[in-house]
Amino acid sequence: RDTAIACDDGTRQFYNELARASVLPVRVALYQLTCADQIVAMQYCLLDQRACYLLKPAYDERFCDYSPGHLLVYEVLRDLLARGRQEYDFMAPQSEWKSRWTKALRAQSNLYIFRRSLIGYALQAWKFRVLRRLRQMKQHDQAD
Predict the structure, then answer these.
(1) Position with higher pLDDT, 124 vs 93
(2) Is the pTM of the predicted complex or chain greater than 0.85?
(3) What is the DSSP pairing of strand 27-35 with strand 87-89?
(4) Which residues contact 30 (CB under 8 A, 6 or more apart)?
(5) Phi then psi for 40, rounded to 5 degrees?
(6) Quick one: pLDDT band at residue 1, thresholds 50, 70, 90?
(7) Who's near 123: CB < 8 A, 6+ residues apart?
(8) Distances in whole angstroms, Cα of residue 124 to Cα of each of 41, 103, 116, 127, 137
(9) Residue 91 dihedral angles phi and psi, to the nearest 5°
(10) How do the residues of the chain divide into helix, strand and coil, expressed in percent and rounded to 5?
């Protein structure tokens, strides 16, 4: 309820299809931290034989004073070690809360594919020309 996943139909469909995809060499793992039968933090992860990949963390902001996300990371790491997993990947993007657990970063690449159509060319121009120019203008204004 009321999460970034639930609020967007496309995102919800992506995660639902991912959970149903039995042909993947990985499986979905949902970890949750509860208090008095209420979910206060959760992690949507993918697991393979050696690693856990954090796709989507979430926590109930009413419990933020207790750091439920960090408590859950601790418990997930304990579970993964007990199951013989060798790695826990926070995935991109880097954020302050993740840097409390590790300073190690991995290079990340993005791939964009656009159709050869008027809409595809317009989206490509927006992504790689217009947005880049707007970021440059913002940085220039902040430098002044």
Answers:
(1) 124
(2) no
(3) unpaired
(4) 42, 43, 44, 45
(5) -110, -15
(6) low
(7) 114
(8) 37, 34, 10, 5, 19
(9) 65, 165
(10) 45, 20, 35
